[in-house]
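Students often ask why we bother encoding 3D structure as a string. The short answer is that it lets us treat folding as translation between two languages. Here is a chain of 270 residues written in the first language.
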Amino acid sequence: MNFSKYKFFYVNGCSYTEGGGLEEPSIRGDSVIPHYEKKYGVTWNNRTEVNYGTRLSNLIGLNCINQAKCGAGTDRVVRTTYDFIHENWKDRHNFFIILENPDPSRSDVYLNDLKDYFIVNSRNNENFEKIFSASVREYFNNSYKKTDYLYEEKFKAWFENHYSFDEKLKSDDRDFVGLYTFCKFHKIKIFVMNKSTLYFNDTFMKEDVIRFDEKDYNHYMYDINSWCRTKKFTIEDELEGLSGDGHPGYFGHINYANKLFEFLQNSNDE
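And here it is in the second language, the structure alphabet:
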């Protein structure tokens, strides 16, 4: 891949792409930065400095635009990536895209009252059934916190009346493949993190249906979350018991960026 032909690149996803778990003390009281400083002698000002997008930016010498958000689902990734493409349409051949495909427990829901989108998250109960977990415009943003709380019951009701994990999984796959196909049709260079089969089965696309060109994803790595868990590069692994956080760690982002760099170097620009 000839990096010199591009002006910048774009990444999107959830907390794994934003740098979740590596937040600075000013926005997260239980920040792990002091533990990393004591154990490894490394520190940073904020999570944007240490996520794999920034690490990759330093390796290839191109600016990275990262629109990932903690808790975001595939529907938010698809929506905001389309918006980015439309806003940069004249430059569509001057950037490339790398997308994470988050799991279906996260929803992107518009609220008329505030004319804004909310991240609506769910979790498993003791019976492994999905139940409402949270509704926020942005995690770790105190300016939203009080107002967002006022709408929690409304989003809980939405979740209980409209959410289905199985249907969301199918919808997410359709939307993600649709965006990918749109980019291929318009010759916008795109790479995807294929949703790991460690956690999800194929949905409506089974057997011999091809969703992505093999050259557009690294099937030896899957997504950053699965890769870091498999390679023992989570925050929990790196801090050896000082934190139970399963997000990709400081060194996980570095190593994943290095692997992405190798993969992109060996990719073509067609």
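Translate back mentally: Residues 69 and 196 are 20 Å apart (CA to CA). Keep this in mind for the problem set.
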